Amino acid sequence: MDNFLQQLINGLTLGSIYGLIAIGYTMVYGIIGMINFAHGDVFMLSAFIALLVFLFLTQILGVTSLPVAFIIVLICGMALTSIWNWAIERIAYRPLRGSFRLAPLISAIGMSTFLSNFVQIVQGPRNKPMPPMFTDIIHVGGAGHDIVLQYRQIVIMVVTVALLGGFWWLVQKTALGRAQRATEQDSKMAALIGVDVDRTISITFVIGAALAAVAGALYMMYYGVVSFSDGFLPGVKAFTAAVLGGIGSLPGAVLGGLTIGLIEVFWAAYFSSDYKDVAAFSILAITLIFMPSGILGRPEIEKV
Amino acid sequence: MTAASQSSAPAGAVQRIASATGEPMNGAERLKQAAAAAVLAAMLCVPIILLHAEADGVGALHPIVRPLPVAIFAFLAFFGRLATLNFAAEGKRERVAKPAATGWRATVSRLLPPIGLAVLFLYPFVLVTILGAGKSLKWVDSYGIQILIYVMLGWGLNIVVGLAGLLDLGYVAFYAVGAYSYALLATTFGLSFWICLPLAGILAAMWGIMLGFPVLRLRGDYLAIVTLAFGEIIRTILVNWVAFTGGGAGIESIPKITFFGLRFASAPDGFDQFFHIPFSPIHGKMFLYYVILCLALLTNLVSMRLRRLPIGRAWEALREDEIACRSLGVNTTNTKLTAFALGAFFGGLAGSFFAVRQGFISPESFTFSESATILAIVVLGGMGSQIGVALAAVFLIGGFELLRELDFLRAVMSDGAGVVIICLAVFIFGVTPRRRVAAQIVLAMAVIVLALRFFQLLPTAIVAPFGIPDFDPAQYRGLLFGLAMVVMMIVRPRGFVSTRSPSIFLKERKTVSGDLVKEGHG
What we know:
The structure holds two protein chains of two kinds. By secondary structure, chain A is mostly helical. Helix content of chain A is 72%, strand content 4%. Chain A has eleven helices and four strands, in the order ααααβββααααβααα. In chain A, the strands form two sheets. Chain A has a two-stranded antiparallel sheet. Chain A has a two-stranded antiparallel sheet with strand order 2-3. In chain A, helix 1 packs parallel to helix 5 (151-173) and helix 2 (39-61) packs parallel to helix 4. Chain A is globular, with a radius of gyration of 19 Å. Chain B folds into two domains: 1-99, no CATH class; 108-405, no CATH class. Helix content of chain B is 71%, strand content 3%. Chain B has helices spanning 2-7, 11-21, 27-50, 67-97, 103-131, 133-163, 172-189, 193-215, 220-240, 242-245, 271-274, 282-308, 310-320, 322-327, 332-358, 368-381, 386-405, 407-414, 417-431, 435-454, 460-463, 477-491, and strands at 51-55, 61-65, 258-259, 262-263, 499-500, 512-513. A two-stranded antiparallel sheet of chain B has the order 1-2. The longest helix of chain B is centred in the first third of the chain and has 31 residues, at 67-97.
């Protein structure tokens, strides 16, 4: 039982990170019907940006307070990663609007290759280790139980919940969110009633990147190590989460992220950690085959 | 200086540019855009290039500040953007004046296959005659065999992606199945390559059917992701099932290829002694070259002939409109499965050839980037075009191999002369709206800089900071490869060969633009 609760905590932590990345996939897919293959590498890039900003703050500016440094890292990471994703959309995807259907996907695969190689060249191929942060732990469940809640797990969950609240408010309550949802439903109609579709799509990429940046910073903090190849697997798993939750559905992405995180952690704990990726990928295949619209997605209607 | 040369362009030209593009993009406007690009480039570079996390002896990271590369990138972005804006304006004008020249295209496309074939068959002999056996080893091996493997893989994937319109991101899985089939059959049961080759193909095709059956009713993007997942699942199993596959260490000492039972070795039962010719490793390589050439041509032949059969026409019809196909009674599942299985079959053949050529395989060779490379070859070649795919394989794989060779490039980039030339080129192209003059100036400048460098007249203090220490061109292949995919999609989304010829025609063969060919819905 203790082990189960412990793994539940670990799974929710990992799932929060996947959920944050998955939102970027699901929003982009919802609005332009494209699998943003490079999103995982944007996440990896953001983890590097977080690492570098953190080093800059602590070693060059001499900031000593860890929480202050971490908040600045989050904000800077969100801003800088957003600029990257904005530029990527502008350069690699926008010229392809109206091109054949696979063109953006192939361009995104190219962008993904470019980003991981770019980071490898400018930051070196080695793993970048970080000293652990927020290492304090709390024993949960009182005496006789051996369940550990780390401070950094609390940080991850609190940041994720706060961010998702803000994000929900943005999408549901603001003019920007309305434009975004309108474009998602019918971009031509939205353009006719005065929504700037190009701008809305750009903002979608910016929001997706900002959430991925937070995920990147949290990932860097949680695992304490990042390398240029760390974008692919979390990216594919987050996409799996988006599909599992129903692609296009925002609560679905979070739900899918948590599910994938839990499945992976429990699989590793109870079966074998070697095959945890196989478990995640098999879930993806099984979901798509038997439940193509996911848990919360709308079924797709085929029109002739 | 920039502003001056911008305003020195004739007023009439500016007028014409404005009327042709339909937007008044004057000099000031272009400068503003270029400045924006420079600012953007600087902002992109600030976190990831400006700071470098350098690990010290005990593994702790320390930031190193590198302002120069950021400045260079901002500079390149400014003049690069200016150049593209200028060229866009100029290109619009030229397009009106230039009449379309199409006559030579027909001649080229008619003559290319037979000439190409002759060149391919003579290639190793010509090399050996010119370079001698020792020196031509590398050219036959890493240029000939290596490229032909990818040509074959490209043609195999082309059946799935180009003809049937199914996007497969896990093609490398079948390549891996083929390679491991041969390696395991040969090392455990001692079967010869020629028995294992068809077996490997059949096993891969069976995997294709097994994987394809449940997933083929998915639409394009979903299908792509599931195939990617299958590719990763197979790779993970290869890594983790150590008892069966050898795990990450792979399988070593796979038996080499034999010529009707004769080994390519300096032994009494070897090929060379049997024919009483002096032993040379080139004979084995040449034999491998012809094997892969025949396998690739077989792939081509089969897919070209199948295109004309009902099954091939069903593939292409499916690619164009799945709903229409279904309403006409085409069994879409079987049609897709045959394409998938046939593609997998050729992938398996290529895989078992790869295993026999390498003599060693490990999961490292079957990563997603391999799938992406093969897909890039198919897409860059022009999906569905056989010649285009072959050309793309030659350019991409040959280009990659060339990047390993360029010692000259390495020297030039390491001491900074290369970066200076690139900066000069972009600068001149940026400020001069006329293409031809700019090209001549750039060429002259490049020659001057290189000559100065050659005679050691270039002040090191100026050039050295620009240099990329330990510049390794091969390191940049992934970067260039990714960029090539993006640029190709923007510039020529239909690939090198952007026309498609029909397999069935009435009276006269008419090629159509690739834009008219659909990519399928999965």
